[in-house]
User: Fold these one by one.
Assistant:
Number 1:
Amino acid sequence: MEILEGERKNSKIYYQNGYYYRKDKKATESYGGGFKCKDEFCRSRATSEPSLALVQITPHNHLPDFEKKEILKLKQSIKRAAETTSGSLRDIFDQETASNQSAHHVSFGMMESTMYRRRRSVQPQLPANCGELDNSLRVNNISKFLDGTNFYKGYVRINNDYAHIFIGKTVVASPTDLHVDGTFKVVPRMFYQMITFGYILLDHFIPTIFILMTRKTQELYSLAFSKVAELVPHLSPLRIMTDYEQALMNTLEIQYPLAEISGCWFHYVNAVVNKCKHLGLFGLLKLQVHSDLKKWIRLLLCLSLLPPHHIQPTLGNLNPNLFVVSLSINDFAKCQSLMTYMETFWIGRIGSNKISVFGCPRRTNSDQESFHASLLKRIKIAHPNIWLFITELRKFAEVQQLDKVRLECGLQIRRRRKQKYVLNDRKIRVATENLANGRLTSLEFLQSVSHCADALFNYQLGVSRINQPPESETVSSFTQVQIEPSQPNSIPPQDEAQQLNVSIQRDVAIMQNTDDVAIVQNTFQLGENLHSFTKIVGVTETLRVVDETNGTTCPVCLENTPNFATVPCGHMDYKEHSNMEQLIEKNIGNQLCLAGPLIDGYLKEIAYRGKKEIVKWKRKYAIKKLVITIDQKATIEKVFDPWRLQGINYLLKRVYKKKKVIYDANGFAIDGTVQSLMN
């Protein structure tokens, strides 16, 4: 006999040989047996032996069901997981049923209410307000560590504002660096924020004090921090880093007068970048012609790395008149507004002493932000149940206690920092030493470290560095057909030309005034002799035309006006003109760019990835407008696959809605700006 958990809490089901029994409350000796079949239409009875085996008294009227046992076990594991683990009920259900063979017999709709009741059954009653929360925390064991010590230390109150204080067992005597920051999304709904105190131990952040607050006023901060000072009297840091919330910084200055208060460099950079967005400077920053503007803003972002007494004089030397020369009058006024913001808010209101992180071993509180993100990931839902939140916070505090012991034993508890951050830190330290020794001026210091803020700057700008392929890959992509730059009238040797006697279908892009680019499809046959007068130019930089004749006549026939084109690879090519047969007879042949596969791949990206890939491609090749032009129906049906037509139609109809599209007699789109070239 095997005992299983029933549908209701504390109920039991007895299983043996494919049959399921429950206790018979009406059973007597005269009635016979102490167990009856769980099937309400079956009158089978059984009794138990000392060996815990069931002895059937009356037979069953149905067949045994062996699969139901696994279903009951699955339900039991789901309900138990809802009691003992946090997170959303749906995630728990999915995790428990992921690898179970009986999962198709159980749905989330069947189990949701049961799971919720099981979770609530192991938690105290939810408090109606913060006053009831204090009473519940003192009575229940939910806020106690495994050794019985209390995680909850009390609360303070001013009017209807509360601050509940929790302190872990990881507090050390007189930490040198203290980080203080708040988080909002992870806290229960009856509170507004949670303030976290953490210190740096052996170059690792250890959170230790947590304050749940209903508001963030300076009066409530003062009461809460005074209570913390009573509970932890030896907490006297030398440096405190926080964000730039004025009430929080003022309270910390009063509570810890001997500590040096500084703001987080990350928060400073983020605020200045958001101000640039607000002023409308980001649209200019995305244009390559305004690179001087980007360099100037990068200097402003790194002002926080200077000593306090250097910040204001250096800001005065960063006048945009001296650094930005490519802007219009209206755009230059935006730069002046940014300078006014820097002077009035950061220098006048915040102060250079709080901005500067010069000499600080840690210039940001990113570790604290990471802790808050980890806590949210652990709880898995925003604004959770108060008991769920306190339970997970207590478990997290216990983990921090173990991490502290591991650190003291010389173990590594976190991943190593990424190499790029280590290099950035090293460059800033070297520049700081050179500035302190007088080897660099303040402006030279900013120029040497200005790239260190690029990660956040480029992220906000929406620009990511283009990954260039390794040199070996770049070379191999051109080894199949080598194109050597030569004079227009030069003819390659006969043996080399014969190797290129193949039939190639090509796509070329017609450029007019370097603004409009049209992808035109044509099909040609290569003659026996082919020479190339193309030149490879700036493949990853910009799309340019190289016209070696620098004139208005075709360099091939020296008679007609040339119809020339460029393709995204940077090669220049010529379109078929009236006397092509004459050129073939002269063994000059048709001039054809051999980079067609690049365009094929480009159109494929358009079809599969849509507008985002187009934007990336445009950034890479610095093209402002793009129009797809198709001229011959027969050629289209022969050459273009359906996915390529899909990409072309996407460009014509959806991406460039403002571009005027003209349709020819056959119903194919022709761009008006290049129509004359196609006739």
Number 2:
Amino acid sequence: MNFTPEQHDAIFLDGNLIVMAGAGSGKTRVLVERYLRLLVERGRAAPEGMLPSGWASSILAITFTDKAAREMRDRVRTTVEQRARAAPPTERPFWEELRAAVEAARIGTIHGFCATLLRHQPAETGLDPHFTVLDEADSAVLLAESVDSALSEAISTPTTVFEEFSPHELQTILLTLVKGGSNVRAALEGLPDSPDALLNNWRERLETLRTAVVEEMCSHPSWRQALATLHQLVAEAPPDDHIGNQVWQLAAAFPLSQPPGTLPFSRLDRINLQGGSKSAWPGGADDLKAAREALRTLRETYRSHQSLLDATPGSALEQRAAQVTLDLARLYRMVQEHYTRRKAIREALDFDDLVRRTRELLETCPSVRFRWQAELSAVLVDEFQDTDDEQRAIIYALTGLACPPQPPPDRPATSRPSATLRCWRWQTVYLPLPWGRCERFSPGRNGPAGPAGAGSAHEHLLPLPRTAPRMG
């Protein structure tokens, strides 16, 4: 078997890893080989008499779709069968057992795993282990019925939102919100009760964002260079020259030592680059050109951020928008209530329920969390960059990455469990990790779909921090 150095590392390195790769880089082959390597290791180390299903059940492979899960299982099965045929006679019984283990392997979607976990914990969840899982089609029907029921109930006491949107538009909006999952639910549940309070929240967030943008803008090299040029030229700038006069005024208004938040940025919009005489400048055409370029840089930088810097919330339009937002949140809650009742009648859970209830169970019931941590020796996640906050919380809980205490610096949490977190894309990826910050990972080279002349795509391994909490 021939592997690139990066592929070899992705298959054989132990520990918590994030792998990024481009299309056509052999990612499926690498995932299959890593899974198979783990399965073989557990099979050879298994106590005598342990069934093959016991080897396989300790490795969890999560894919994004059922189709991807089927393809992965087929690839693993085919590889095992090929190696069974090529193995010496003394090894064939082991590979035959391994083939049986593949059929019991935990390879599937996050929703499928959550359903399994919840069915195993009826006492803790209060769920009938024979609950029904709604597929997308059934869920869509119940949601549409719930939206209609909520609108019929709410229209008897019409509010501002009914003045802004037609019933058909509201149906579309509410269905979109409900399908938004945990992120939308968290955002709407966190809204204040009154339009004024919501408007104040918007103002605070706007000010926070504006401060960050101003600091970033004023620290950019092009801005700093333009402002420095302005101050260098002010001693030579002729006050009676149109360009020189603007250099004088803006150098006075934008001192180099003044905090960015107090600068009069709106004055930059009035910069006029017409006029100016090179004969009026001691440095002639060169100084005039430098002044124009500095002024142009400051003006265009400001204009690229103008809509944010000049925003003034608090108008009647914003007041109405705040009221409509709260009306939509109320309708959203009504839809959820109707939807929950309909699911309860059917003793059914949808995909969002599976993920939410699994996360809540793992976070609030240590005994369940520790049991599953002990049962799983490895977790592999395909398309990790597409997981949402709740799905990541489940993965971190299963692997112990979100549970204190932290190991000492000389003992990186790498061996148990072997949690392989995988991102197969050549691009900068922002991954929220469980230590209260967002790590920025960039592989630093392009895959085959990148610019002309880009190098070939390879896997890129990024070990998680040495201070990652180990399993509790």
Number 3:
Amino acid sequence: MLCRLRVGPAQLITREAHAAQAQSRKPVATCRIRSVLHARPFLSILEHHHTALKQTVNLVILAVKATGLDQAINSMEGLVGPETRIISLLNGVTSEEAIAARYGWKHLVLAITQGMDAVFIDNALTYSHAGEIRLGAAAQTEAGVVEDIADLLERAGISHAVEKDIRRRMWAKLMMNVGINQTCMVYGSTYGTALSDGEQNRCLVAAMREAKAVANAEGIKITEGDLNEMISIIANLDPNGMPSMAQDRINRKRTEVALFAGTIIERAERHGLLVPQNRWLLQRVHEIESSW
């Protein structure tokens, strides 16, 4: 989903969001939606938006999967003006670079989401933890942009925190995804089974430690304490839930493995590091995807 919001009452341009708002009589941003039926692709939403409104907006939130990022960047062109703020909630540590290449860094912030356990299968969305947004400034982000977005999130009732070192938080989240997301996809497992003693847990921790080593080589100070913190976050999620890549396996959709093992392998090669667990995970994910 790619959304636009105006500074003021939050407005999400999706049919589902408007329906939820009408039913609950509460701001869309605070609605707890337990199921979504016949979810529409973000591109059709944007096409409708371009046709109906044809005007720039104050804030663009990218909440698409990595496989839809390029299309989203192209489609949002009509929404972005000289004062439009942009925030990406995609996994990984590279989406902002792609966005900045088109729209610049001035009004773009760095962000991640964490702590949610949403499962979307057969057009039904369920969760027990809504999670939160962590955001912060990039080196070239203009002063006040992070505060503007944080203020809107606060007024909309969306859990968030401003990070002084957001890149470190992004790499910690990447380390977590490299472990839990890929392991659950390859083994077809849940949060609970991946954290149980055995082969899956060994795979998860080994992949995370490789990511930690790569982060350190990139100048990001990720520690064993950060690894344990990420595992604690996973342990607090619904043990019967599963991350996005495991859901992709069930739904037979292309995964974001390029953002996880792909990034770790590419950065490891820059620094002459060996990352055998991530290479194995990348190979297994591609084998599973090719079998569909």
Number 4:
Amino acid sequence: MALALVSLNAASIAAEEGPGQSLRIIVPLSAGSAFDILARAMGNAFKERTQQPVIVENRPGGNMGIAANACKSAPPDGSTICLLTQNAITLNPLLYAKL
């Protein structure tokens, strides 16, 4: 259900941005992981639906903090999807002073 909602939302964002706007999916684990496979399946569905490029960016390490920082630094234009667990968002700020 969540995957469908994310895909639909991303498709509507891409339609608003026009052709050439690529979607970036940030994955907190290495290539070949379950998150990576999910991101690539989402990316393929998005690309088929919108004919726009999709970039799957693997950012492993730091208890998912590296990917969380990349998401935090992404431009707020709706072209980035972050696949994070709630640990990366809720627990990491409590455990680590600098993220």
